[in-house]
Amino acid sequence: MSDRFPARVLNRLEELDDAVVLEWPGGEVTAAGMLRLVRRVTAALRSAGAGPGSGVAFMPGVTPVGFAALLAVHLVGTRVSGVRPGLTAEQLAHLLDDRVGWAVVDASTDVSAVVKARPDLVLVDLGPLGAPDVMGLDEDDDLTPRGRPEDVARVTYTSGSTGNPKGAAQTYAAFEQEWPSRAELHNEVLSDLGSRLDRYLLHGTLNSVVMVDYALVCLVHGGRLVIPSAGGSFAEIVERHRITGSIVTVPKLLELLSVVRAGTGDVSSLKGVMVSGSPLDPRRYAEALELLGPIVFQGYGQTECGLISMLAPSQALASENALTSVGRPLPRNLVETRDGEIYVRTPQQTIGYVNEGDIVREQAEVFTDDGWIRTRDLGGLDGEGFLHLSGRARDVIIVNANVQYAGPIERALASHPAVDQAYVVGVPDPATGEAIEAFVVLREDVVAGLDDELRRIVGERLGEVCVPRAFTVIDAVPLTSAGKPDKNALRLL
């Protein structure tokens, strides 16, 4: 069996044959049917002139043929740039640079914006390729992966919340070391989660590395991908489609907890949810395990190096020390602490940012000369091998020239029983440079003296210098397109 991506996935589809591997509003797709879609898209890409090293902007929505295309673009050996929807014209032009010659699109893509940004791009339209089996659609039987080890396989872009997105580049050599499609690299925790993904919710965007990683884990373990019908909250989608496994952000997990508390929905089908995007407060984690049962996993990773560590519910329930961690590093991942910051080295890590200009300094800070990735997170390993985070080196507020980390302040605020979520940002202040302001989502109605209580908690735990100057109660935190708390939006409130 070839180790070259996506050979293992395609071989698994051949083994599954007539088993249903994907369910969507348009029906069901068997493993054999998915292979046919891969062959169609492969033929279309090669007919359009794309091949090893070709730069392809990947832009379709979440559909069966879209998922097949994600396998096909790597089968052909192209350099895939994931272009998410919702970009500004400037950001889109920035991503569609002269390294990109082709764009994979479908009905959900704003093709007019693409053409305006790059009228010379060759468009590969998935629309006709996703039609039911009919005569006249070419299918390429050559499913030999063509990616060259030294070529860039994937460019994963950040959200661009601070300007133009920056892209982390991963070679085919590194891409083929990725753990999702290689069952022999799944430790006990990954195998446990994989066994729970009978009906895995595939939604959002196919340019989400985390979303696709666990979709591949689902297929390796013989599960079914479920693309939901439109409409409804996250909890309603889980109930409607009897989802057993999903990736969730912290806000989505809190939504599930609210539903369980209120008894307004049935999410009992869930067997395994992976919290991703930002660490879960230990108090909330314990509450989630109590209300949802032993189904909540936690992962810690970064765009530049992928999944770093993972925590199983069984570990979190067995040890208070584990509960306050983000789990143990995955096999083959090396983790060390330098001056209080976490550094990581993995076989699948990216080689650097493809952009230039104002991020050259950041690249030098993140991708070190000795081959390690500087996460810019604070923390370290304990004696049992669990990785603990104590803050983010980047999420800082500088008050009177003194650096204050937002993470510890947010955790202190979230420890109050009336506070469901807490977020801290820095805002300009003419006297101190920046000042700390807090935004809280409450579990109860506002109680008298809450601001004073919160000030007291922060002051006692962290000192008066960390006490926010103002508190604002919000109904819900604004989210970025990636589903993470949008602190830039909070600053504008």
Automatic annotation (TrEMBL):
Residues 409-484 form the AMP-binding enzyme C-terminal domain. Keywords: Ligase. It comes from the Bacteria. GO terms for molecular function: ligase activity. PROSITE patterns: AMP_BINDING (PS00455). It holds the Pfam family AMP-binding_C. InterPro entries: AMP-bd_C, AMP-bd_C_sf, AMP-binding_CS, AMP-dep_synth/lig_dom, ANL_N_sf, ATP-dep_AMP-bd_enzyme. PANTHER family: LONG-CHAIN-FATTY-ACID--COA LIGASE (PTHR43767), NONRIBOSOMAL PEPTIDE SYNTHASE PES1 (EUROFUNG)-RELATED (PTHR43767:SF1). This is Acyl-CoA synthetase (AMP-forming)/AMP-acid ligase II. It comes from Kineosporia succinea.
